[in-house]
Task: structure prediction
Amino acid sequence: MNKLLSFNKIKKITKGQWITEPDNPELIIRGGAFDTRSLGDAEIFFTWQGENSDGHDHIHQLAESDIKLIIVEKEVPKIADKAVLKVTDSLSALHLLAKELMIGFSGKTVNITGSSGKTTTKSWLQHILGDHRNLLTNIGSFNNHIGCPITILNLKEDHDLLVLEMGTSGLGEIEELTAIAPSDIALLLNVGHAHLGVIGSREKIYQAKLELFSHLKPNAISLLPAFDEKLVNARVDGERHYFGMGSSEFSWNRIDMDVLSMTQILCFDSPYGKKTVAVPRLGDYVGDLISGIIAVCYFLGLNWQQVEPGLSVLPQEKGRSTFLKGKNDVLILDDTYNANPESVVAMLKTICSLNMKQFIGVVGNLAELDEGMKETAGYVVDNIPGKLTDLYIGGDTGKILLPKIESRYPNLNAVYFDSIIELIEQLKNLSHKDAVIGVKGSRASHLERVVYALNGRMPRCELERCGKFIMCNTCKEL
Result:
């Protein structure tokens, strides 16, 4: 049984002082939140000064909620029947509480990072393991220095597996997270160009991702991609194993692909033996991610009969490599949830792997990568597939890429678009049954509007960038 937190234990760990004491100091409480608009079933609320607002100004909204404890950094008035604990630093308190819960956690911890594929891998693992383990994992891509410890606060007494997706935008962030939650199994998917402008160099990106192996439990398993020579030769503690194309342990190859059913037949070679699976996803990235997932399952002690059924019915997340049929029977690859250079190239290669006559890529602004786009542009340009017939690009990303692409690929129809509406009008003329259109952009670009339009639903919103990190179908402005 996992050891959870009581009011008194929280006070002791954080060295806080009661502003309002609880009625029952030994009561066990769990679940954390820091946004009054998104409480879920949390019982502990953390209040701090944000970049744009002071959370202390909003805690009166908790009066009618199920929150039992409010952690603050300054004096506040009494809030209904809520206990209030004052600490020096609320974020540090969150980290301390998460670390204490991990000390009392009796299950296994799987930590995952990589430049792309983290959320998909975590989601597929959750799907496969859900019937065999009592599993807790991050919601969505809630994977940073706040999201991971908040996730840990949701531990229950009977959870026996924790799967944490860990993201980073700088050195030291993943090291801090693994210090809170050391790995039994650490899975590094890949190292790309994301956040190059922020972190500073590819060498530092490798350094940041390799922090995943900074804190390992005794007898931990470290999993690295065999297709990256730099990672194969990296200094990593613990028992090392390799997955992906080229691995001698957990490898894969494609046997066949059926565009109509959006299925590829993959053969996985692992300690389970050679196993052929019909996987309902297209793209080379699928085999690499699944070979890593198979490695995790193997070292968690699952047998193949427990793993295989989940691979045949992988869950599909909206905007993550989803194939759709649009008007005039045009095939659409909706990959609009987010973007980085590697995932842009992967999207273009996926559409060009199909048996079609026209291959159209749409790449919106990579807003999260603006600072590093000049450095990463070379990677995108060098890896554009030869079968690509048309490429529509927008935003600052497009302004950087267009002249390089025109110079390198004179036969490619490369077009810069100034607005979503202009883009949609041009794509309508290219929609036919022998064409595939792949759409990719950062979350701020909200290019799912293009997908909606290709299905006959014209959006009202014409913003080039949007500050709402939500899907457009939930926005009243669409």
User: Anything to note?
Assistant: Residues 31 and 154 are 4 Å apart (CA to CA). The longest strand covers residues 216-225. The mean pLDDT is 89.
